[in-house]
């Protein structure tokens, strides 16, 4: 997956559709415990799986990636991509998880814009933002 911070491309575009069509059946058939084998076979996959987990509101996958695989990356933490994906999807549980894991929004304005654009002002409560 491309570096979404550098390209400013929405990480939840068509690339996530490709990830969904490949990862969803693989996870159903193999489970999280086999994910490290997949990461060895495809070294660039962890970033895509991070976005996949957030986009699909899969806190279980995110917990596995962060705690078991230590994939809390400075790249995503600093550019706010994961938090924006969670906000756009209205995934309150993921927004809370990311905040507890140390992800910080890029700016209050961008958070409010993302949530408003997605018509999901309810996620702002997870950040204790009042509009």
From TrEMBL:
Name the domain of life this protein comes from. Answer: Eukaryota
Protein name according to UniProt: Uncharacterized protein
Q: Which organism is it from?
A: Aphanomyces astaci (Crayfish plague agent)
């Amino acid at each position: 997956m491309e570096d979404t911070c550098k390209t400013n491309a929405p990480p939840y575009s068509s690339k996530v559709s490709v990830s969904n069509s490949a990862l969803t059946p693989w996870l159903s058939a193999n489970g999280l415990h086999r994910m490290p084998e997949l990461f060895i076979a495809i070294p660039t996959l962890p970033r895509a799986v991070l976005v996949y987990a957030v986009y699909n509101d899969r806190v279980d996958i995110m917990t596995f990636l962060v705690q078991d695989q230590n994939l809390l990356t400075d790249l995503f933490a600093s550019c706010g991509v994961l938090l924006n994906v969670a906000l756009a999807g209205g995934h309150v549980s993921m927004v809370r998880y990311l905040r507890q894991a140390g992800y910080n929004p890029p700016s209050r304005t961008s958070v409010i814009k993302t949530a408003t654009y997605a018509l999901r002002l309810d996620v702002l409560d997870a950040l204790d933002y009042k509009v």
